[in-house]
Structures are given as structure tokens and as C-alpha cells.
């Protein structure tokens, strides 16, 4: 049986300045517009497809699209914020159709600062409280 190494898997953590998730380019791309984050927001066994896409290279703008049913999708386009304190802890905030998404855990891949996964909570139009979400990209 082959040995498996977990050391290569980066741990999730809050956005950190000048490292994983601490810069706009970590989300939107440095030399070209990066690929969208895709995943789900889930509540009470109801998984809603969620896509968070960079809009413009070098600009802190996301298009956040969430499916409310098989034939209904809603989106919002707006700026995202990266908030980091002196301890290196922080969060990412972005617009959604019904309010905001708050990513309080990001993961970077390949030993660099490019964000490959965001987890947190998001407000949706038909649930009174924030629901958990996870989106990722290769």
C-alpha cells in the first residue's frame, strides 16, 4: 500500500495579508483574468449552485450567481473587500442577490498566494439566516 503525505495539502485559514488571500490578485488573477469559483450554498438539504467569478483583471469586482431552482438563477455584481487585521486574521466580503457573502476561510494551492477555495456563509433570498457555502477552483 502506498504511503500518503498530507503535508502537501494546504490548511484552510482566514485571509492573511501578503500571503494566501491577502491581495486582490489572489482572487482575480495577476497576468490574466482567473477562473471562477464554483460550488454550493446549502441549507436544510437544499444545495444551491453558487458561482463567484472575477469580473475585471486587477479590480476587486465579483459576479456572484446563485441558483434558486432548476430554471431560476439570480446574481449580483459588485466589489469585494478583503479585511485583515494585524494578527493576520480576516475575511472576504462580496455582494450576493440577497445581501452579502462572508468568506472566513480561504485555501491557496501550489504553495503560492492564489486562492483556490473559499468557505463561509451567504445570505439567500428565501432563508432568514445566512447559510454555509464552499466554492473552489483548480
Structure description:
This protein is mainly β and 138 residues long. The chain has a single domain (25-136), classed as Porin, CATH 2.40.160. Helices cover 3% and strands 50% of the residues. It contains 1 helix and 8 strands. The chain has one helix at residues 25-28, and strands at 37-43, 46-54, 61-69, 72-84, 90-96, 99-108, 115-122, 131-136. It has an 8-stranded antiparallel β-barrel with strand order 1-2-3-4-5-6-7-8. The protein is globular.
Element layout with pairings:
Elements: H1 25-28, E1 37-43, E2 46-54, E3 61-69, E4 72-84, E5 90-96, E6 99-108, E7 115-122, E8 131-136
Antiparallel strand pairs: 1-2, 1-8, 2-3, 3-4, 4-5, 5-6, 6-7, 7-8
Distance between the termini: 27 Å
Number of strands: 8
Based on CA atoms alone, the radius of gyration comes out at 15 Å
Number of helices: 1
Q: Helix-strand pattern, N to C?
A: HEEEEEEEE
Output the strand order for the largest sheet: 1-2-3-4-5-6-7-8
> Roughly what is the average pLDDT, rounded to an integer?
85
Structural class: mainly beta
Strand content: over 45%
